[in-house]
Design goal:
3-stranded parallel sheet; 330 residues; TIM Barrel
Length: 330
């Protein structure tokens, strides 16, 4: 898929499924489980407005070795086989290693790549701009800017993003994670007519604010196990169907409340970032445990993340089956 085609595809409204990387009890990557999960998703979402993204934050990219990263990426691209667009997470704190990963993904047949803001050293605005420009110019496929201050402790402001998309032609969309609705509005307004912006903080944020501010979709970890429900959420938001939006917020509430309970139970957090930045990531263990419960291959998380307990999983099962009324995925 050409960058212009991927940009147009996202502009119509899209869900980016950030795929989990399943790990076995011994913490080895469960490649067969990954293949099964990808087959499940391709069957469910083919011909619908979805993008698959392996090795993103939800895929615990930072916890993968280079060889593991390559095998995860190749597995997903092989199964997708052109049936579903694939945008590969190629994040790295350095521009050269990120560009090398981007070229590897391109050679395998990825439709695009995604790179989070460089973490570790804090760059100037010129350094940040040049970081993304160097990666964009190293490939012919699309580049997604993952504007996530939670994991990087920096932020690309609207004027820098606009300068970037004006200077290179293969930025296909921005995955925006600001926790501040006014800033989200400024990003959408500044980039209007150039590239679409999708909400990076998930379904609830899309329903609560982003659909009214002009974003064209959202990133979803929940779509790993309930893509059909997520598609209805997308449609409700894009159509600005307030009744359905309220309905889906109520539907998600027990699950969101359970995640927050796990954050507190397995805390306290070690963050020094102020509220409302994300201060705990038990959500990944909850998503993986949900997949395991529903017959998919979620596996476990790798350190420094920690798993929820067997007692927690029993409570989760009650929420999935009796409150959300979900059926086994397989």
């Amino acid at each position: 898929m050409k960058p212009s085609d991927l940009r147009d595809y996202a502009a119509k409204g899209v869900i980016q499924i950030v795929m989990v990387t399943p790990f076995k009890d011994n913490e080895e990557v469960d490649y067969e489980g990954l293949r099964e999960n990808t087959e499940f998703l391709v069957e469910k979402i083919r011909g619908k407005p979805f993008i698959l993204t392996p090795t993103g934050s939800t895929g615990e990219i930072y916890a993968l070795s280079d060889d593991e990263w390559k095998k995860v990426v190749s597995t997903v691209i092989d199964v997708a086989n052109g049936k579903v667009p694939v945008v590969v997470g190629c994040s790295h704190a350095g521009a050269l290693p990120a560009a090398e990963r981007a070229k590897y993904a391109q050679d395998l047949g990825a439709d695009g790549i995604m790179v989070v803001l460089p973490y570790y050293h804090v760059p100037s605005e010129d350094g940040l701009y040049s970081f993304y420009r160097k990666i964009a110019e190293s490939i012919d496929i699309g580049l997604v800017v993952y504007n996530n201050p939670d994991v990087s402790k920096i932020y690309m402001r609207p004027h820098v993003l606009r300068k970037l998309v004006d200077s290179v032609d293969n930025i296909v969309f921005v995955k925006e994670n600001t926790p501040y609705p006014p800033m989200l509005y400024q990003q959408v307004k500044t980039l209007s007519g150039k590239v679409p912006v999708i909400e990076g903080r998930g379904e609830w944020w899309f329903l609560a604010t982003a659909a009214l501010l002009g974003t064209r979709g959202f990133t979803s970890g929940y779509a790993n196990f309930m893509p059909d429900v997520c598609l209805e959420i997308l449609r409700a938001g894009l159509n600005k169907d307030v009744d359905k939006m309220v309905k889906f917020m109520e539907f998600l509430d027990p699950y969101e409340a359970f995640i927050e309970k796990m954050n507190k139970k397995h805390g306290p957090s070690s963050t020094i970032l102020p509220h409302p930045y994300i201060d705990q990531y038990m959500v990944y263990s909850v998503i993986k445990s949900t997949m395991n419960t529903l017959g998919l291959r979620g596996g476990r998380v790798r350190l420094p993340l920690t798993d929820i307990s067997e007692e927690d999983i029993e409570e989760l099962k009650d929420i999935l089956y009796n409150k959300l009324k979900l059926s086994p995925a397989k």
